[in-house]
Amino acid sequence: MADPYARVYFGDRFVDAAEANLGVATSAVLYGLSVYTVFPVHVDGDQRTAFRLADHFQRMIESCKIIGLDHFAREWDFDRFVEVARQLVAENAPTSDVFVRATVHVDASIPGTRVRGLHTTVSMFVYDAVPIVPQDGMRLKTSTWRRIPDDAIPSRAKVNGAYVNSVLAKQDAIDSGYDDCIFLDGSGHVCELSAANIFLVRNGTLITPDASCDILDGINRRTVLTLAEEDGIPIDQRTVDLTELYIADEVFVTGTSAGVAPVTEVDGRLVGDGVPGPIGDGLRKRHDAALRTDDLRGWVTRLV
Ligand code: PMP
């Protein structure tokens, strides 16, 4: 991830990035007790627009509710969230596309392992929108680390501490010369990547693990499903075997930081002919257009 831009929202004010610090004894630092989201902001001349901001905000509300962080929903509504995003983007005046990371940190000091009622601080910062995976065909490796099951740390909640799981698996993949990992669940079914959802295409049908497969309910996953439905592409959301990826015609991934990006190799086997496929490519173009263009779906929020 690139460095944050100069001005950061932290604890109800805008400060210089160097001043936005959490204490060493806070639960956010000691236990990874924070929830977050990353949303994209597209820059077009003087205009700056956020994509699916209401859905990102809603997922933060839900993440907080799942882990018992009650403050956020009481103190924040969507209008307040938009206003902070608007001011943040205005203060930093990005000249090309950026990502915005918004986090609810539990910043109570040494409270032990509990959460309810503890003080929280919200931060928001901007950084360059550099994709975290290659965009022209990536190579994936199945991880020996299994995805954290929903009944251990809920995958629907975007909890910072859970990302140790992602770090372990992604580092292993990189150390082995791959671009990212594929997480399986305890039964060997496909879940997702370290920070992206996964899709495959077989005989014209778009297949992806359903939302109960220990995955994050990704906002770009939802976007691609909606676009595919509009295009009349048959969709199958279900459990997916690893070997289905080996014989897929196409594989691609979705995520704010990953984009809609093709996979050309899985565990040393070429996907299809080893080049990006037409269905994934079409959905990538449709997704890029949706991100940039205001439309009737209400997915785009004008910030500046
Ligand atoms: N899965 C995980 C584990 C992630 O961290 C992300 C990135 N937020 C995704 C999937 C994709 O989610 P989204 O489309 O909302 O960025």
UniProtKB/TrEMBL annotation:
Family matches, as PROSITE patterns: AA_TRANSFER_CLASS_4
Entry protein name: Branched-chain amino acid aminotransferase
Family to which the UniProt record says this protein belongs: Belongs to the class-IV pyridoxal-phosphate-dependent aminotransferase family.
Taxonomy, superkingdom: Bacteria
Organism, scientific name: Antrihabitans cavernicola
Keywords: Aminotransferase, Pyridoxal phosphate, Transferase
Gene Ontology BP annotations: amino acid biosynthetic process; carboxylic acid biosynthetic process
Cofactor section: pyridoxal 5'-phosphate
InterPro entries: Aminotrans_IV, Aminotrans_IV_CS, Aminotransferase-like, BCAT-like_C, BCAT-like_N, Class-IV_PLP-Dep_Aminotrnsfr
UniProt key word Membrane: no
